[in-house]
Amino acid sequence: MSDHVAEVRKLVCDTFLLDPERVRPDTPLEELGIDSKGRIRLLATLEVFFEVTIDLDERDQLTDVESVARILTEALRNKPGETAAR
């Protein structure tokens, strides 16, 4: 499991005003009411919060908190000027 699951879970709960009890790493985002527009919003939130760039094409890979954390970890790894992920 990615190092950033807890951070992403909190960000998802805060961004979409969700009860943390409902948000598990493997809960499908669509089950939480997060549709394709919501995934774009989530991408933008991740980019601002973590100061990374995530390709919009990654949107379809955002299926649950765990996959979002995995994509975030990769973006942090590829962040210019960074030698290691947070």
Automatic annotation (TrEMBL):
Organism domain of life: Bacteria
Domain (Carrier): residue spans on this chain: 1-76
Pfam families per record: PP-binding (PF00550)
InterPro entries in UniProt: ACP-like_sf, PP-bd_ACP
Record's protein name: Acyl carrier protein
Naturally occurring in which organism (per UniProt): Amycolatopsis dongchuanensis
